[in-house]
Amino acid sequence: MSIVLASSSPRRRELLERAGVVFEVVVSPAEEIHDAGMKPHLLCELNATLKAAAVAETRPDATVIGSDTLVFIDDMPLGKPADMDQAREMLRRLSGRTHQVCTGVCVIHPGGGKNVFHDLTDVTFRQLDDATIENYFSKVNPLDKAGAYGIQECGEMIVSEISGSFENVMGLPVAKVVEALE
Ligand SMILES: Cc1cn([C@H]2C[C@H](O)[C@@H](COP(=O)(O)OP(=O)(O)OP(=O)(O)O)O2)c(=O)[nH]c1=O
């Protein structure tokens, strides 16, 4: 059975490799939907499904994995920041508080059967002053990451506590994905 990861994210690739899964990567051409009116976990699942379905169309022989990660606080989703000002704004908003990271996953099997699910992790941030935020951005590029941070890159500078799966925050709840592949 061939497995395709429908993602451009190097973090997702690394997580799936580490789990011992053999797969190819095909970047999905699907456009993400950003609808702030939708419940965040449904939005993640929908975007994961759009990403997987666009690749499954061209690879009906394969099992295709699509995923989408959103950070949200007070039910407001934060995707990837458009620029550095928006990135600063996002970290100021997350400072000193607990937020949720949701990764939606869609696994489409040959024949069209689907597993769609999500995982949630609570992440608590330290109090961040502007100097700490600038220092963090001098080490980590926030622009390709939901919520403008990467827990796997100098996470200790900004995160004080997490409750739930670390891999889910990085972009893929690997244990649940492996279960869906079995
Ligand atoms: C919160 C958080 C997000 N991220 C990353 C994971 C995802 O790559 C990205 C969220 O954007 P996504 O739109 O979920 O994914 P992507 O555009 O990078 O890749 P693709 O759609 O092709 O699968 O943020 C981290 O690496 N660390 C973190 O701590």
UniProtKB/TrEMBL annotation:
Cofactor(s) listed: a divalent metal cation
Q: Keywords for this entry? A: Cytoplasm, Hydrolase, Nucleotide metabolism
The EC designation for this entry is 3.6.1.9
A single GO BP term for this record reads: nucleotide metabolic process
Query: Which residues carry out catalysis?
Result: 68
Q: Name the enzyme group at the top EC level.
A: hydrolase
- Family per record: Belongs to the Maf family. YhdE subfamily.
Q: What is this protein called?
A: dTTP/UTP pyrophosphatase
Which reaction(s) does the protein catalyse, per the Swiss-Prot or TrEMBL entry?
UTP + H2O = UMP + diphosphate + H(+); dTTP + H2O = dTMP + diphosphate + H(+)
Per the entry, what this protein does is: Nucleoside triphosphate pyrophosphatase that hydrolyzes dTTP and UTP. May have a dual role in cell division arrest and in preventing the incorporation of modified nucleotides into cellular nucleic acids.
**The organism's lineage?**
Bacteria, Pseudomonadati, Verrucomicrobiota, Verrucomicrobiia, Verrucomicrobiales
> Which residues of this protein are annotated with the site description Important for substrate specificity?
11, 69, 152
